[in-house]
Amino acid sequence: MIAKQTKSYEKIEQYDEELTASLADNYKTIIADLGEDVNREGLLKTPERIAKAMQYLTHGYELNPLEILKSAMFTEDHKQMIVVKDIEVYSMCEHHMLPFFGKAHVAYIPNGQIVGLSKIPRIVDAFARRMQVQERLTDQIKNCIQEALNPLGVAVVIEAQHMCMQMRGIQKQNSVTTTSSFTGAFEKDKTRKEFISLISNKFS
């Protein structure tokens, strides 16, 4: 799946035709097996729509997060914490193929190099737009930044709601899952507390 922005109001999405057809056939079978009439008006194009949606929701497999970071690294003598918080996260639980969504908070302490700020949300998306578990997603973001920048420390916290817990199973509508992962300086209590304080405060 290739998505490109041509104007501020127009986005063109290009999908693999062979993959789309294969997925659509499979979804048509699933819908029929569930007892629906796949030939009724409202469902005629549904298999194709789902096929395209799933390609978009998992397009992170086509992205290289490490290369995304390396494309915008700059030498800078800055030794203080850099935090990008409240990054929207949308992913697919690999156990039930249902969405989980929430926010990621990412910080690092540079060690001679910084990265363009937009690249942090980009790698969050690159890892999130796959079949995932929140625990692994948290670690992957941390490890990618650590490998690319070799900073003095990395911190990642993700807070998310899981539809597999809300619309099925235990059906707890207000449950939020929080995961965290730290390296280097953030393993020290003082630095970690500063990070938690920064992501907890609302910008005013």
From TrEMBL:
Protein family: Belongs to the GTP cyclohydrolase I family.
Binding annotation for Zn(2+): C93, H96, C164
Xref: InterPro entries: GTP-CH-I_C/QueF, GTP-CH-I_N, GTP_CycHdrlase_I, GTP_CycHdrlase_I_CS, GTP_CycHdrlase_I_dom
PROSITE patterns referenced in this protein's UniProt entry, alphabetically: GTP_CYCLOHYDROL_1_1, GTP_CYCLOHYDROL_1_2
UniProt cross-references to NCBIfam families, sorted A to Z: folE, PRK09347.1-2, PRK09347.1-3
Keyword terms of this UniProt record: GTP-binding, Hydrolase, Metal-binding, Nucleotide-binding, One-carbon metabolism, Zinc
Coiled coil: none
Listed EC numbers: 3.5.4.16
Species, as recorded: Flavobacterium frigoris (strain PS1)
Cited Gene3D superfamilies: 1.10.286.10, 3.30.1130.10
Substrates-to-products reaction catalysed: GTP + H2O = 7,8-dihydroneopterin 3'-triphosphate + formate + H(+)
Enzyme class: hydrolase
Top-level taxon of origin: Bacteria
UniProt keyword Transcription, yes or no: no
Domain GTP cyclohydrolase I: 25-199
GO biological process, one term: tetrahydrofolate biosynthetic process
Presence of keyword Ligase: no
Stated name of the protein: GTP cyclohydrolase 1
GO cellular component terms given for this protein: cytoplasm
GO MF annotation, one: GTP binding
